[in-house]
Design brief:
Structural class: mainly alpha
Distance between the termini: 55 Å
Strand content: under 5%
Number of helices: 3
Shape: elongated
Order of helices and strands: HHH
């Protein structure tokens, strides 16, 4: 349970997995393997119907797409969910705050 919570905590802005370079390497290897498996399924004649191949490819794409998105977010400190306790002097999403009325041009 502790590892699962730590893995989810890595999705917060400013947090990262331990050894992000190693995880990025695994992510790139996984991307290459998925591309190779996709090419083999399309090019190599098998006793599987096209509908079955499409279903398998769709399932793999969904699962691996989620994993790819997780690894992209969890291996960088530059993006992610807002911090659990943002600093009091700055809001969690400063770009989403409306500017003061005095800065707005007249319509």
């Amino acid at each position: 349970m502790h590892k699962l919570l730590a893995a989810l905590a890595a999705l917060r802005h400013g947090a990262s997995l331990a050894d992000p370079a190693g995880w990025k390497s695994r992510q790139n290897t996984l991307n290459v393997l998925v591309a190779l498996i996709g090419a083999v399924l399309v090019l190599y004649p098998m006793g599987i119907s096209h509908d079955d191949i499409a279903a398998i490819a769709g399932g793999l794409a969904a699962v691996l797409g989620l994993l790819n998105g997780y690894l992209t977010t969890a291996t960088t400190t530059k993006l992610g969910l807002p911090p659990r306790h943002p600093p009091a002097d700055r809001p969690p999403f400063p770009d989403l705050i409306d500017p003061p009325d005095s800065d707005r041009p007249e319509p």
